[in-house]
Amino acid sequence: MPAPAAPPAAPIALGSRRELFVDRFLVAGLEGAELRLATPLDAGPALAFDRPWEGAFCAYSTVLRHGGRWLLYYRGVPSSGPDGRAAEVTCVAESADGRTFTRPELGLFAMAGAPRNNVVLANAAPFSHNFSPFVDTCPGVGAGPALKAIAGVHSSGLHGFVSADGFRWTPVQAGPVLPSPKEFTFDSQNVAFYSEHERKYVLYYRTWQEIGGTKYRWVSRAVSEDFVHWTTEGPVDYGGAPPEHLYTNQTSPYFRAPHIYAGICARFFPGRQVLTEAQARAVQVDPQYFQDCSDAVLVTSRGGRSFSRTFLDAFLRPGLGLQNWVSRSNYPALNLAQTGPAEMSFYVNRDYGQPTAHLRRYALRLDGFASLHAGYGGGTMLTHPVTFTGHRLALNYATSAAGSVRVELLDGDRQALPGFGLADAAELIGDEIEGYARWKQGVGVGAAQGRVVRLRFHLKDADVYSFGFLG
């Protein structure tokens, strides 16, 4: 695990925002407790890439919510070849619940044997290679197009697109919004979004970084006030984590805590071959696509070029089946979807380069990328000094029948505030997405508003996924 960050110079202003246990930003000390990475639940196929214009090399998927439904965008191309070629198209599918997707019959572009189909961009090389849309939440957008997209390869630079309905896309201008530098770049899915936290458009894009004589697939960042004029800021910093090839970065604001950017990235191991030639023939993978393997890892940021790789272990392993151990499989889609009152989902391209290529859904508890965890023997976590503005302390937590969660509020000298000590704290037992810390006097924490405090969590056979001082 990377070394913890230095303590903050001033108290952390939490306000009433929700905080997750995806990094050590708030952690001053752990005793008998740990930050534990979640294990996603395989929820089954979401869409098979089985149309003639789709096929084995569908990739770079994006899921977003627009117009009361979920939209899935992805590259369609049935055969391998150079990036940005004319055969590539951009496809869309729809879902009411984010669990399974169907194709709308749009009729915008005629495909062989199917005049009505789900293609939203064609005959527009190279932009269907990595077309990456997002919902524009900038307050100044008003009645303008609700959706924007970024697309392009090194030979073209990155171009911007806009759409009102998610199906009909037009360029924002004739040339690129971010021209290519001299160094080779943009050869992956490049992702943009409007950051409510930073109050600007943010772009994370593919670059390369030489470290110790090895060139790694890397990520760099640019920002913009208007989506058209971009300023590059340079490569991101993973805080001392060992360098690895992150093929896609898939960074976006987490929808329940938008000051935290979460990326479920494809981690690529070039030349790490698992299948023999005979096994590759058996799964019918393209002969050029079985000499490498990939999995997925979790990275997070709180803005800027600094990222945390708190967990170096795989977030999603390739899993059972030789078909999962081929080149460029297991690539996560951009964004997460809330698919139930207590559930969120992310999506992964599986069986790349094979006739069985498809998008698969994985489920997590809401806020549940990771948790503060302690076993039966119990443990504690102490936060750095913080201030807050809410009136109740909400917790997303789960315990065993024998387990519990309790919370203390301490002053700057780590002494319990009157009425908020361990002896005053009620045991929380159960499993709730939004439960409330309680003390003998009740759930109110207004008496501590405006003060610099620390929180000490006491856990026994329990997990806490998030907390926040809500209104």
UniProtKB/TrEMBL annotation:
Taxonomy, superkingdom: Bacteria
Protein name: Glycosyl hydrolase family 32 N-terminal domain-containing protein
Annotated organism of origin: Paludibaculum fermentans
